[in-house]
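Tokens as discussed.
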């Protein structure tokens, strides 16, 4: 290993957060050992030994930096030379206004970059318990599927029960098994996104009768049973199983993933579908498509039976069926300081989903910041946190101190969160007029407010980079 042991940063877990953290530390000139237990020990959700394997969706969501908080987070990470964003951009597949990736190509790109970096050593094998005491600068980024020995050790160290929630994954269908005399390509409102052309989703239409029969089948279908210790674990609202959404009311899906707006069926243009099922390209070859919003805990037999009642999918062949796994995360505002260090043992820093952020990009961004903090520590310096006005700063604020409400004495309501403009501080002055001097009306005010918050964020981040980091803003 290059460099003295005392100056080495050890990173446990090579998912999105750990991979990004390793890249940032090494880019700062500090040696890294990146520990990954796969393939010697697999998880319930992973299928390969590749670094940064995507186990749920293949979408990084909106890439619109001016109008969307996650698109803004993309832009901030690119400014900081993010490996995760570089690999995503190089392996994008069409997805309307979203940034979606070929999952195998993405993982391969991250794995190659980290394997070839001269300051990064990849060590395969499980860290079964707390990292050794002689490791003085550690990032734990083991994700929502942290192995039991390490989770138990963290729990014992913090004297805090880890919170938990359920996360579900959607099925993937072979493209050539979809009936194109029924389905058609179109993005909602023909919106063009990165790598796309405005016709990036496969759409399967439903009549009112077909929709109602489908919803009834979802509710009646045979579901995976919870183990006794899982029965009180809540779902994360951003990844609800489709049958749970169906149970919330007969129209819930029509106003969620199956909403029929912004689409016209070319096979029958005068008839407006009552509901739409969308599929999004899942790999660069375009041979696999995932069913958008169809994460599920239905048993495999019922998944195939029920999903083949969707018009256009009657002969669907599944490359992967949906599933359900239990995620764990820390009560981070209580347990972590502002630099993501464990208060009970500051040599341990945490990153990724286990800190209480939700989403691929959010997890990677927290890994990015953990890497920058750890690199500064290795140099004997302290890095100022990014401004709260930025996407990075607002997400860190949520994790390390924001949005805790007392529900009852001794109970805190910290929950995982996607990046959103609700986490940002309000604007000093809200735009009221257009550039031509006319007044903003209705939804124009909301759009202008988001754009002003995004512009403020990027300007403040550029200043923070110039003042604090030894990298070029356009790295």
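Sequence:
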């Amino acid at each position: 290993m290059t460099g003295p042991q005392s100056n080495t940063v050890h990173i446990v877990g090579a998912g999105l957060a750990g991979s990004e953290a390793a890249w940032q530390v090494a880019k700062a000139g500090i040696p890294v050992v990146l520990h990954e237990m796969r393939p010697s020990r697999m998880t319930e959700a992973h299928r390969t030994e590749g670094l940064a394997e995507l186990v749920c969706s293949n979408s990084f969501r909106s890439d619109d930096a001016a109008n969307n908080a996650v698109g803004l987070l993309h832009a901030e990470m690119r400014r900081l030379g993010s490996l995760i964003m570089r690999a995503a951009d190089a392996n994008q597949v069409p997805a309307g206004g979203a940034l979606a990736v070929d999952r195998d190509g993405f993982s391969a790109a991250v794995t190659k970059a980290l394997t070839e970096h001269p300051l990064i050593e990849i060590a395969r094998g499980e860290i079964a318990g707390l990292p050794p005491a002689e490791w003085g600068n550690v990032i734990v980024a083991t994700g929502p599927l942290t192995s039991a020995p390490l989770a138990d050790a963290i729990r014992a160290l913090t004297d805090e029960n880890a919170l938990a929630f359920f996360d579900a994954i959607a099925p993937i269908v072979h493209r050539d098994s979809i009936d194109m005399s029924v389905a058609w390509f179109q993005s909602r409102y023909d919106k063009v996104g990165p790598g796309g052309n405005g016709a990036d989703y496969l759409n399967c239409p439903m009549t009112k009768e077909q929709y109602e029969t489908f919803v009834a089948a979802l509710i009646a279908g045979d579901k995976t049973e919870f183990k006794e210790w899982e029965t009180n674990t809540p779902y994360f609202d951003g990844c609800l199983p489709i049958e749970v959404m169906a149970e919330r009311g007969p129209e819930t899906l029509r106003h969620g993933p199956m909403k029929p707006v912004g689409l016209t069926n070319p096979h029958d243009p005068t008839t407006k579908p009552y509901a739409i099922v969308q599929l999004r390209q899942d790999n660069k070859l375009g041979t696999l498509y995932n069913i958008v919003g169809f994460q599920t805990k239905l048993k495999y037999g019922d998944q195939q039976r029920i999903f083949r009642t969707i018009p256009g999918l009657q002969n669907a062949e599944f490359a992967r069926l949906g599933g359900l796994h239990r995620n764990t995360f820390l009560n981070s505002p209580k347990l972590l300081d502002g630099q993501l260090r464990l208060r009970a043992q500051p040599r341990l820093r945490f990153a990724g989903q286990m800190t209480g952020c939700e989403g691929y990009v959010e997890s990677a961004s927290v890994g990015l910041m953990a890497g920058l903090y750890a690199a500064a520590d290795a140099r004997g310096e302290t890095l100022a946190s990014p401004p709260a006005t930025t996407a990075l700063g607002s997400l860190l604020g949520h994790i390390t101190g924001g949005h805790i409400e007392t529900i009852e004495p001794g109970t805190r309501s910290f929950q995982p969160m996607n990046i959103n403009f609700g986490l940002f501080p309000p604007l000093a002055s809200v735009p009221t007029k257009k550039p031509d001097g006319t007044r903003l009306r209705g939804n124009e005010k909301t759009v202008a407010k988001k754009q002003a918050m995004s512009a403020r964020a990027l300007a403040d981040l550029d200043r923070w980079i110039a003042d604090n980091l030894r990298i070029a803003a356009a790295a």
